[in-house]
C-alpha cells in the first residue's frame, strides 16, 4: 500500500484530505444516527422488558468503554488504516446480528459489537489525523472530524425514519450497514503514513498501558478529570431536552423539533470553533463552551413553554458545537509521539466514563429530589469543568499565533508535571 509522506506545514490544506479523512467519519456517524433511535424499540419487539431494553441500549457505551484500551494496542500493531477497515467489518457483523432474527441476546451482542467497533474506528481516525495534520491546523482538523460525525448522526435519523415508513424497522439497520461498508471502503484507500516505520512500530509496541499511565498520571488525573466532567454534562444534554419537554407537557413531535433544531446549530459551528482554537488557544473555546453549557442547564427549569425551551436548547446546541473536537484536540496536544494510540486509548476512557456518569447522576438526583434539582446540579458540572479547563489546559507561549504544539517530555517525565507555558 502506498505510504503518505509527512505533511508540508506550509502548503497543507484540509480540503486535500477531505474525502479520505472525513468521508468515513460522516458515514460512521450516519450509521450510528440511523440505528440509535430504534435500538430500544427493536429490543422490546424481541421480548425485552423496559429495564432489559435500556440495558441493551447501554451496551453501545459499555462496548466502547471496554474496548478503548485494546483499541490503542490494536492501532499500534496494525496501523490506523487497517484498524478502521477492521472496525467497519466488525460493525457490519454487528448490524447483521441486529437484522437477523436470532433472538434478544444475539441482538444485544450485535449492539455490543457496534459499540466496540466504534471505539476502534474513532481512536484510529483521531491518531491518523493527529499525525497527518500540521500542529497549526490540528484543532480545525479534529473539530471538523467531530463535526463530520455529528452531521452524519444528524442526517441518519431522518433517513431511517423515511425508510421505516415504507419498509419497517429493519430498514434502519440496512441503511447503517450500507453506510459502514462505504466507510470501510473509503478507509481502505487511505495511505499509511511514512512515519509508520518498523522501528517506530517496535518502539510504540514496547510501551504498555500501565507504563503509559505511570508516565503520564498527572496529565490523566488533572486534564483527564476535566475531560470527564466535560463529557458528563455533554452526554446529559442528550436526555435533558426530551425529559424537560415531556415534564412541561410538550408532545413527542414538539420535543423532536426542539432536539433537531438544537442539533442543527450544534453541527453548524464546529469549523469556526476549531479555527478559534488554532489561533487563540484551546482555553478560548473550552472555557466558554462549558460556561454556556452549564448556564443552559441552570436556566432550563425557568422554561415552561415551547418557545422558551427552544431558546434554551439552541443555547445548549451552540455550546456543544463550540466544543466540537475539543476532547480529541486536547488529547492530541498532550499525547506523546511514541505510543500515541496507547495514550489516546486511556484518554478516551476518561471521556467515556464521564459520558456514562453524567446521565446516571441526572437520573439519580431526579429520583431523590426532582428533575429541576437534577438539571441544575448537572449544570454545575459544566461550571466545574470550565474551572478545570482554565487551570489545567497549558497556556500558549506569548505572541504565538499557531496551535499549541507541546514537545514530547524526556523519557519518564509527564508533560503534566512541567511548568505550564505562559
Features:
422 residues, mainly alpha, Growth Hormone, Chain: A, 2 domains, two-stranded parallel ribbon, globular, disordered C terminus, transport
Layout of helices and strands, plus pairs?
Blueprint: E1 3-4, H1 18-35, H2 39-45, H3 50-78, H4 80-99, H5 104-132, H6 138-167, H7 170-188, E2 192-193, H8 198-205, H9 209-215, H10 217-247, H11 252-268, H12 270-280, H13 283-299, H14 306-322, H15 326-334, H16 340-368, H17 371-392
Parallel strand pairs: 1-2
Give a verbal description of the structure.
With 422 residues, the chain is an all-alpha fold. The protein folds into two domains: 206 residues, Growth Hormone, Chain: A (Up-down Bundle), CATH 1.20.1250; 210 residues, MFS general substrate transporter like domains (Growth Hormone, Chain: A, Up-down Bundle). The radius of gyration is 21 Å and the shape is globular. The N and C termini lie far apart (43 Å). The C terminus is likely disordered.
Amino acid at each position: 500500500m502506498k505510504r503518505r509522506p509527512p505533511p508540508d506545514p506550509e502548503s497543507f490544506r484540509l480540503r486535500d484530505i477531505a474525502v479520505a479523512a472525513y468521508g468515513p467519519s460522516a458515514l460512521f456517524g450516519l450509521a450510528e444516527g440511523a440505528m440509535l433511535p430504534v435500538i430500544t424499540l427493536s429490543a422490546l419487539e424481541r421480548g425485552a422488558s423496559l429495564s432489559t431494553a435500556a440495558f441493551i441500549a447501554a451496551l453501545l457505551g459499555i462496548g466502547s468503554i471496554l474496548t478503548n484500551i485494546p483499541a490503542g494496542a490494536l492501532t499500534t500493531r496494525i496501523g490506523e488504516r487497517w484498524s478502521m477497515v477492521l472496525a467497519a467489518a466488525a460493525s457490519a457483523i454487528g448490524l447483521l446480528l441486529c437484522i437477523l432474527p436470532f433472538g434478544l441476546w444475539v441482538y444485544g451482542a450485535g449492539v455490543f459489537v457496534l459499540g466496540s467497533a466504534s471505539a476502534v474506528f474513532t481512536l484510529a481516525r483521531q491518531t491518523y489525523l493527529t499525525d497527518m495534520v500540521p500542529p497549526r491546523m490540528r484543532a480545525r482538523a479534529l473539530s471538523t472530524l467531530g463535526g463530520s460525525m455529528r452531521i452524519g448522526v444528524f442526517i441518519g435519523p431522518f433517513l431511517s425514519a423515511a425508510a421505516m415508513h415504507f419498509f419497517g424497522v429493519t430498514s434502519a439497520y440496512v441503511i447503517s450497514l450500507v453506510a459502514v461498508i462505504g466507510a470501510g471502503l473509503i478507509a481502505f484507500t487511505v495511505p499509511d503514513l511514512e512515519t509508520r516505520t518498523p522501528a517506530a512500530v517496535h518502539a510504540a509496541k514496547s510501551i504498555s498501558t500501565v507504563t503509559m499511565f505511570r508516565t503520564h498520571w498527572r496529565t490523566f488525573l488533572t486534564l483527564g478529570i476535566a475531560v470527564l466532567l466535560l463529557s458528563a454534562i455533554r452526554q446529559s444534554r442528550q436526555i435533558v431536552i426530551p425529559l424537560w419537554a415531556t415534564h412541561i407537557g410538550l408532545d413527542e413531535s414538539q420535543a423532536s423539533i426542539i432536539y433537531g433544531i438544537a442539533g442543527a446549530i450544534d453541527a453548524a459551528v464546529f469549523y469556526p470553533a476549531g479555527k478559534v482554537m488554532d489561533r487563540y488557544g484551546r482555553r478560548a473555546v473550552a472555557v466558554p463552551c462549558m460556561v454556556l453549557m452549564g448556564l443552559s442547564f441552570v436556566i432550563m427549569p425557568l422554561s415552561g413553554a415551547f418557545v422558551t425551551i427552544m431558546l434554551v436548547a439552541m443555547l445548549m446546541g451552540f455550546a456543544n458545537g463550540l466544543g466540537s473536537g475539543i476532547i480529541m484536540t486536547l488529547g492530541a496536544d498532550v499525547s506523546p509521539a511514541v505510543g500515541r494510540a496507547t495514550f489516546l486509548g486511556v484518554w478516551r476512557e476518561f471521556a467515556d466514563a464521564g459520558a456514562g456518569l453524567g446521565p446516571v447522576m441526572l437520573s439519580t438526583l431526579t429520583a431523590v429530589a426532582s428533575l429541576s434539582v437534577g438539571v441544575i446540579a448537572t449544570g454545575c458540572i459544566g461550571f466545574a469543568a470550565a474551572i478545570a479547563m482554565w487551570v489545567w489546559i497549558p497556556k500558549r507561549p506569548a505572541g504565538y499565533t499557531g496551535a499549541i504544539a507541546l514537545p514530547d517530555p524526556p523519557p519518564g517525565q509527564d508533560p503534566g508535571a512541567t511548568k505550564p507555558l505562559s
